[in-house]
Design a protein that fits this description.
The protein is an alpha/beta fold. It contains ten helices and five strands. Strands 2-3-1-4-5 form a five-stranded parallel sheet, sandwiched between helices. Helix 1 packs across helix 9, helix 4 runs parallel beside helix 5 and helix 6 (118-131) packs across helix 7 (139-153). The structure holds adenosine-5'-diphosphate (ADP). Adenosine-5'-diphosphate (ADP) is lined by residues 9, 13, 31-32, 35, 52-53, 56-59, 64, 86-87, 89, 93, 136, 145.
C-alpha cells in the first residue's frame, strides 16, 4: 500500500496516518513531525526551520523533499509501502515527490483527501492548543495555515483526480468513524493494488512481445 494524504490542518492527517500505518504495517512518513523533531532536538536543520513552523508558513521545498527522499529509501528497504502525511503541499512538491517515487519504483497508489470546513478545523485546532502546546496552534497562525492550504495545497487535489488515484473522505465526523471508512475503502481497493513488479514475476514473459506483436500488451509499461 502506497498512500499520500492531502488534508487541511486539523482534519486528522496525523491520527489517520498512524492508523493506516499500523493497519497495513507500513512506515508513516509525517513531514510536520519530522520537522518538529528537528526543532525539539535543536539540530541545525531545526534552527533553520523553526521560524517557518512558528509562523505557519511552508519551509523551503528542498528541505522537505530531501527528508522525504531519505524516508522513501528506508521505506523501500522495509517493503515498499508507505503513508505520506504532510507532503505534497504545493504543485512543485507534488511533481518532485512523484519524481522521487518514480525513480524508486514506488509511486503512490492512492491520494487520500480528507475534507472538513474551516469552522470545524479551527475549533479542533484551538481545542488541541489547550492540550498540547504546538507553537503554531494559535488563532492567528491557524488562520494563516488554513489560508495557505486553500491557496496552494487544495489545488493539487485535481491533479490526483486526473491521475485517477484520488479518494475523498468526509472528515467532519469522529476520528473513529473517519478511520473506519478509510480502512474499509483501502481494504476494498487492496486486491487491485497489490501489483508485483515486472522484475519479480515468477514466469518468463520475454517471448510475449512477439506473440502479441510490437504494439501488444508487452509493449506497455506497468506504471
Ligand atoms: P498541519 O497540517 O496541522 O499544519 P503539519 O504537522 O503537517 O501540520 O505541518 C506543520 C508545519 O510544518 C507546517 O505549517 C509547515 O511549516 C511545516 N511543513 C510540514 N510539511 C511541509 C511541507 N511538505 N512543505 C513545507 N512545509 C511543511
Amino acid at each position: 500500500m502506497r498512500i499520500l494524504m492531502i488534508a487541511p490542518p486539523g482534519a486528522g492527517k496525523g491520527t489517520q496516518g498512524a492508523l493506516i500505518a499500523a493497519h497495513f504495517n507500513i512506515p508513516h512518513i509525517a513531514t510536520g513531525e519530522l520537522l518538529r523533531d528537528h526543532v525539539a532536538r535543536r539540530t541545525a536543520l531545526g534552527q533553520s526551520v523553526k521560524g517557518y513552523l512558528d509562523r505557519g508558513e511552508l519551509v523551503p521545498d528542498q528541505i522537505v523533499l530531501d527528508m522525504v527522499r531519505d524516508a522513501m529509501i528506508a521505506a523501500k528497504a522495509a517493503g515498499r509501502g508507505y503513508v505520506l502525511d504532510g507532503i505534497p503541499r504545493n504543485m512543485e512538491q507534488a511533481r518532485a515527490a512523484y519524481e522521487i517515487a518514480r525513480e524508486l519504483g514506488m509511486t503512490a497508489d492512492v491520494a487520500l483527501h480528507l475534507q472538513a470546513d474551516d469552522a470545524e478545523l479551527t475549533r479542533r485546532l484551538l481545542a488541541r492548543a489547550a492540550l498540547e502546546h504546538r507553537s503554531d496552534d494559535t488563532a492567528e497562525v491557524i488562520a494563516q495555515r488554513l489560508a495557505l492550504y486553500h491557496e496552494v495545497t487544495a489545488p493539487i487535489v485535481a491533479w490526483y483526480r486526473d491521475r485517477g488515484i484520488l479518494v475523498t473522505v468526509d472528515a467532519m465526523r469522529s476520528a473513529h468513524e473517519v478511520g473506519r471508512e478509510i480502512l474499509v475503502t483501502l481494504e476494498a481497493m487492496r486486491p487491485s493494488l497489490e501489483h508485483v513488479p515486472a522484475d519479480e514475476l515468477p514466469m518468463d514473459l520475454t517471448g510475449l512481445g512477439e506473440a502479441f506483436g510490437a504494439a501488444g500488451p508487452a509493449a506497455s509499461t506497468s506504471e
